Amino acid sequence: MTMDSVANSVQLPPLDNPNERAAIGAELQVVLVDLIDLSLIGKQLHWSVIGAAAHGVHLFLDELVDQWRELADVVAERAVTLGFIPDGRSSMVATGSRVEPVVVQSVADHAVVWELGRRVAAVAERVRARLVSVGGADLVTQDVLIRVVEMLEKQQWLLRVQLGEKA
Q1: 6-23, pLDDT tens digit by residue?
Q2: Rounded CA gap, 130 and 9, in Å?
Q3: Are 80 and 71 in contact (CB under 8 A)?
Q4: Of 23, 65, 79, 139, which sits most exposed with the smallest number of CB within 10 A?
Q5: Other CB atoms closer than 10 Å to residue 37's CB: what's the count?
């Protein structure tokens, strides 16, 4: 039995419009890819950070990466729950992510915080833009995406205060 047949061989959660299942899965896939890419970019910056605050930024990046990986898992598990098989392979992330890449070089601590803050904000905005359409089809999936936005926007705030900007 293939993974697709296993996922579809049992009772799936009801949706008002079962035809929306693939569309919701596709929306979750886009979010998943961006979260995986954020975690990869965060790790790259973790290895690249230099400057007086590098140690603190280095440790903070580990926390963020762990949070992005946890959120990615929640998103992927929701997709599977709905009968959609998510794709988190490196090839999918490389071609599907809309997160702006980083240059592989040493990066000053304040620049790491600034650049990462911009990327987190962009992902949060894209996920927020999906809330209404996904919620119209499945409130539980909308709740998952609300959780993602909530965490990303909290991270934006924490990154912003590291730059000395007003909360």
Answers
A1: 445 468 888 877 778 999
A2: 28
A3: no
A4: 139
A5: 22
As a whole number of angstroms, the distance between CA 77 and CA 63 comes to: 21
Two tokens, residue 106: 């040493």
Q: What is the DSSP string of 2-69?
A: -HHHHHHSSPPPP-SSGGGHHHHHHHHHHHHHHHHHHHHHHHHHHHHEESTTHHHHHHHHHHHHHHHH
The owner of tokens 């603190």 is 56
Tell the residue number behind the tokens 């620049």, with chain if given.
111
Tokens of 51: 């400057």
Q: What are phi and psi of 50, to 5 degrees?
A: -135, 165
List phi, psi (to 5°) of 34: -65, -40
**pLDDT tens digits along 70-95:** 999 999 999 999 999 999 999 999 99
